[in-house]
């Protein structure tokens, strides 16, 4: 599916993924876990990759194969590796606490494999989550 | 559109979001939570029993609400989180800073 540069698109992605997962017999809890990683990565592309600009599109390809959910996010923003961005580790009490970097920590904690490359024209982020027997 | 139910029990504001707090609706939740906090009690319990999804944008809502509650002399804690949500709260360390409780009553008691 093709997504506009707008966080409102995340709702559409999650709804579609829930439908896709139901059709493929994937347990809802695992589907939502996968959605969460997609949510974080798409939000990241919109806020950092496109840096708040209004242009740009993101393409999302999802497949269910080999007992895993796999996705590729392809965007035409400037080269941006979400996994190399500065990650501020959560620390401090609630007065000092910031959210920066938490999204990527959540992605890393929930996916089995992640990859990034720039093919000369597009940023390509790959992710994979192995499915557990329900 | 957000799904944020709320009620006041003995001086505590119980916020009960349902379904999802994702990047697309987090801002709406934040605006509603802050408005309720401004006009209501400053002790806040997030009752997560109907919530099956929270993203880092949702964590930001919790953090903002907690800071505001604390500044007003109250506090915030979390009750009845389900597995998916619990996992995100654990990755972020929010489970230890805000506390997770098995019931709204326990959460209210923890706020004193």
Helix and strand topology:
The complex is a heterodimer of chains A (134) and B (112).
Chain A: E1 2-4, H1 9-23, H2 28-49, E2 57-65, E3 68-75, H3 102-110, E4 113-118, E5 123-130
Antiparallel strand pairs in A: 1-2, 2-3, 3-5, 4-5
Helix pairs in contact in A: 1-2, 2-3
Chain B: E1 4-9, E2 12-17, E3 19-21, H1 26-39, E4 43-47, E5 51-54, H2 56-71, E6 75-79, H3 83-92, H4 94-98, E7 100-101, H5 104-111
Parallel strand pairs in B: 2-4, 3-5, 4-6, 6-7
Antiparallel strand pairs in B: 1-2
Word description of this protein:
The complex is a heterodimer of chains A (about 130) and B (about 110). With about 130 residues, chain A is α+β, with helices and mostly antiparallel strands. Chain A has one domain (about 1-130): Histidine kinase-like ATPase, C-terminal domain (Heat Shock Protein 90). Chain A has three helices and five strands. In chain A, strands 1-2-3-5-4 form a five-stranded antiparallel beta sheet, with helices on one face. Chain B is α/β, with parallel strands linked by helices. Chain B has a single domain (about 5-110), classed as STAS domain (Transcription Regulator spoIIAA, 2-Layer Sandwich), CATH 3.30.750.24. Chain B is about 45% helix and about 30% strand. Chain B contains five helices and seven strands; from the N terminus they run βββαββαβααβα. In chain B, strands 1-2-4-6-7 form a five-stranded mixed beta sheet. Chain B has a two-stranded parallel ribbon with strand order 3-5. In chain B, α1 (about 25-40) runs parallel beside α2 (about 55-70). The radius of gyration of chain B is 12 Å and the shape is globular. The mean pLDDT of chain B is about 95. Chains A and B meet through α1, α2 and α3 of A and α2 and α3 of B.
In one word, what is the shape of chain A? globular
**Residue fraction in strands of chain B:** 25-35%
Total of domains of chain B: 1
Unreliably modeled segments of chain B: none
The overall number of domains of chain A is 1
Number of strands of chain B: 7
The fourth-level CATH homologous superfamily of chain B is: STAS domain
- Integer-rounded radius of gyration of chain A: 15 Å
Strand % of chain A is 25-35%
Report how far apart the termini of chain A are.
Answer: 27 Å
Rounded to the nearest angstrom, the radius of gyration of chain B is: 12 Å
Helical residues, percent of chain B: 40-55%
Runs of chain A in which pLDDT lies below 50 for 5 or more consecutive residues are none
Rough shape of chain B?
globular
Structural class determined from secondary elements of chain A: alpha+beta
CATH topology of chain A: Heat Shock Protein 90
CATH level-3 fold name of chain B: Transcription Regulator spoIIAA
């Amino acid at each position: 599916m093709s997504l506009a540069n707008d966080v409102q698109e995340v709702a559409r992605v999650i709804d579609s993924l829930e439908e896709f997962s139901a059709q493929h017999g994937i347990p809802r809890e695992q589907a939502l876990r996968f959605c969460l990683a997609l949510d974080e990565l798409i939000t990241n592309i919109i806020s950092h990759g496109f840096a708040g600009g209004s242009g740009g599109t993101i393409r999302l390809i999802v497949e269910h194969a080999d007992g895993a959910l796999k996705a590729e996010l392809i965007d035409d923003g400037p080269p941006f590796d979400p996994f190399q961005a500065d990650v501020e580790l959560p620390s401090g009490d609630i007065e000092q606490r910031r959210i920066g970097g938490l999204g990527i920590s959540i992605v890393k904690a929930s996916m089995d494999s992640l990859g990034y490359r720039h093919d000369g024209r597009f940023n390509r982020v790959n992710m994979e989550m192995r499915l557990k027997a329900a | 559109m957000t799904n944020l139910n709320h009620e006041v029990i003995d001086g505590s504001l119980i916020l009960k979001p349902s379904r999802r707090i994702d990047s697309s609706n987090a801002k709406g939740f934040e605006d509603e939570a802050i408005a309720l906090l401004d006009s209501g009690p400053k002790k806040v319990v997030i009752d997560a029993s109907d919530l099956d999804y929270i993203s880092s944008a949702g964590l930001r809502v919790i953090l903002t609400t907690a800071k505001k509650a604390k500044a007003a002399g109250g506090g915030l804690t979390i009750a009845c989180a389900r597995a998916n949500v619990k996992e995100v709260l654990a990755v972020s360390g929010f489970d230890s800073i805000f506390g997770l409780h098995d019931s709204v009553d326990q959460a209210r008691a923890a706020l004193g």
